[in-house]
């Protein structure tokens, strides 16, 4: 495992905010940060890049917008948003894992794309956002909602900081109600994801995936929660045969 550690810069630029509800998940995401991007490519055969493009497109982000990428991790969705909003726009990537933000910041500094300068990294809690009401033109969240301890609260916070008429786009594993899809998903986790993660010394870190999907909300339940917190419309789209899903809700 030591050989997989990237050497990260001792200083990196992002705003620090105290995180109220740190738990073992924070430690988990800190631990997997150095290999997270490689594993995503390997485990999805590069497909996660397509799903993330779809999520950004559903967010409705456009040139000049002020947008938020929640649970941004190493920044994949933030970088796509950066290109969408251009140098007159602004992207904020928020995460509670310092290690993930450090990788995101390193990727930003190493890129030749000048528009990436429009991204700010903020260390913070998705359940207690350090932003005023009605501030953002669009919000994305990739593989974050399943991981937060209070999904209802996370949706309330997204609703609060979003401008009226704007959209959130929430990409994650789909908790399918179809037995065949659900068992295919579990088979892939047991026979592909966990063995590959094991070869990276991260078996325990990826074993939680199956239970996190079981404990997640179905597409219909996600739509219901979005409407309950105040969104005027909500629609969940299944992707890749129902293995993944994306919730789109409009304030
Ligand atoms: C599976 S990663 C997804 C990263 C990135 N969005 C992507 O799609 O590649 C989930 C991220 O959610 C972050 N996270 C989980 N709970 C959080 C919370 N309450 N506040 C902020 N970040 C959180 C973790 O630190 C981790 O980086």
Quick structural gist:
One of its GO terms (biological process) is phylloquinone biosynthetic process. The chain is an alpha/beta fold and 251 residues long.
Give a description of the structure.
There is one protein chain. This protein has helices at residues 24-32, 36-44, 47-59, 76-85, 98-110, 151-161, 179-199, 203-214, 219-229, and strands spanning 15-16, 66-70, 90-95, 119-123, 136-142, 162-173, 233-239, 244-250. It is of the alpha/beta class. The protein has one domain: Vaccinia Virus protein VP39 (Rossmann fold). An eight-stranded mixed sheet has the order 1-4-3-2-5-6-8-7, sandwiched between helices.
Which helices and strands occur, and which strands form pairs?
Layout: E1 15-16, H1 24-32, H2 36-44, H3 47-59, E2 66-70, H4 76-85, E3 90-95, H5 98-110, E4 119-123, E5 136-142, H6 151-161, E6 162-173, H7 179-199, H8 203-214, H9 219-229, E7 233-239, E8 244-250
Parallel strand pairs: 1-4, 2-3, 2-5, 3-4, 5-6
Antiparallel strand pairs: 6-8, 7-8
Bound molecules: S-adenosylmethionine.
Largest sheet composition: 8 strands, mixed
Tell me the CATH architecture: 3-Layer(aba) Sandwich
The CATH superfamily appears as Vaccinia Virus protein VP39
Would you list the SSEs in sequence order as H and E? EHHHEHEHEEHEHHHEE
Strand order, main sheet: write it out.
Answer: 1-4-3-2-5-6-8-7
DSSP helical segment count? 9
Helix content: 40-55%
Give me the count of strands: 8
The bound ligands are: S-adenosylmethionine
CATH topology tier name? Rossmann fold
Mean pLDDT: 89
| Rg, nearest Å | 17 Å
The fraction of residues assigned to DSSP E strands is 15-25%
Give the helix/strand class: alpha/beta
Number of domains: 1
Question: Which stretches are poorly predicted, pLDDT < 50 over at least 5 residues?
Answer: 1-13, 16-21
Global geometry: globular
How far apart the termini lie comes to 44 Å
CATH class reads Alpha Beta
């Amino acid at each position: 495992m030591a050989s997989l550690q990237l050497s990260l810069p001792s200083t990196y630029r992002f705003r620090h905010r105290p995180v109220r509800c740190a738990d073992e998940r924070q430690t988990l995401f800190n631990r997997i940060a150095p290999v997270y991007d490689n594993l995503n490519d390997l485990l999805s055969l590069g497909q996660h890049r397509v799903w993330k493009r779809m999520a950004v497109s559903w967010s409705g982000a456009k040139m000049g917008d002020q947008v938020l990428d929640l649970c941004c991790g190493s920044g994949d969705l933030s970088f796509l948003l950066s290109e969408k909003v251009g140098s007159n726009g602004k992207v904020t990537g928020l995460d509670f894992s310092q290690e993930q933000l450090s990788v995101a910041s390193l990727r930003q500094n190493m890129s030749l794309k000048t528009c990436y300068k429009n991204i700010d990294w903020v260390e913070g809690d998705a359940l207690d956002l350090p932003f005023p009401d009605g501030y953002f033109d669009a919000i994305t969240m990739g593989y974050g909602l399943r991981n937060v301890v209070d999904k209802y609260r996370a949706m309330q916070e997204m609703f609060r900081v979003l401008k009226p008429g704007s959209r959130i786009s929430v990409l994650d594993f789909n908790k399918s109600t179809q037995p065949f899809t659900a068992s295919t998903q579990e088979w892939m986790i047991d026979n592909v994801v966990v063995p590959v993660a094991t070869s990276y010394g991260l078996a325990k870190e990826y074993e939680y995936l199956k239970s996190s999907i079981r404990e997640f909300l179905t597409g219909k339940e996600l739509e219901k929660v979005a409407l309950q917190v105040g969104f005027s419309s909500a629609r969940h789209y299944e992707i890749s045969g129902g293995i993944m899903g994306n919730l789109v809700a409009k304030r």
